Recover the amino acids of this structure.
């Protein structure tokens, strides 16, 4: 299942009209957009989505940010999508990441870092089904 991943364009990017530019980079890297929707996370959804980070020092900040505006959520497909997408987005802290990565170009702070990408096949499956419960994974 390493060929499917959940990709989010976070509220800092949607509010600055960077949706199109970011999706262009994604498509140029060979990812196929299999599902897409735009919505604003409520507290309940954000808590469920980020439950693995509960209790961490940045948690409240993260939830406040993610509920502050609209998110574009997509399921992306390509060979080895999870690892390849993590390379394209760069590290969590945009300061530390490579110049050509999405977070380096569009991130503002370690929290407001433009995008989300799943980090493992287990998390990708869980995250995809949290946003798109009807999604069917194919071989
Ligand atoms: O998103 P990524 O998998 O790179 O990082 P994470 O460790 O799973 O953290 C999830 C999100 O929490 C990050 O993308 C940041 O928005 C936020 N975060 C933060 O605000 N401060 C930190 N020290 C670490 C993460
Ligand atoms: Mg993560």
């Amino acid at each position: 299942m390493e060929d499917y991943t959940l990709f989010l364009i976070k509220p800092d990017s949607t509010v600055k009209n960077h949706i199109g530019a970011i999706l262009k980079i994604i498509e140029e890297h060979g990812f196929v957009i299999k599902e897409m929707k735009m919505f604003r996370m409520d507290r309940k959804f954000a808590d469920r989505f980020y439950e693995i980070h509960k209790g961490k020092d940045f948690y409240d900040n993260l939830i406040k940010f993610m509920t502050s505006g609209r998110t574009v959520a997509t399921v992306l497909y390509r060979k080895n999508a999870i690892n390849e997408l993590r390379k394209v987005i760069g590290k969590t802290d945009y300061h530390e990441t490579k110049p050509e990565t999405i977070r380096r170009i569009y991130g503002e702070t370690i929290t407001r870092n433009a995008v989300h990408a799943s980090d493992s096949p287990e998390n990708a499956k869980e995250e995809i089904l949290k946003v798109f419960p009807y999604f069917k994974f194919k071989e």
Q: What stands out?
A: Residues 53, 58, 61-62, 92, 110-111, 113, 116, 119 surround cytidine-5'-diphosphate (ligand 1) (CB under 6 Å). The mean pLDDT is 96. The two ends are 8 Å apart (CA to CA). Residues 19 and 54 are 28 Å apart (CA to CA).
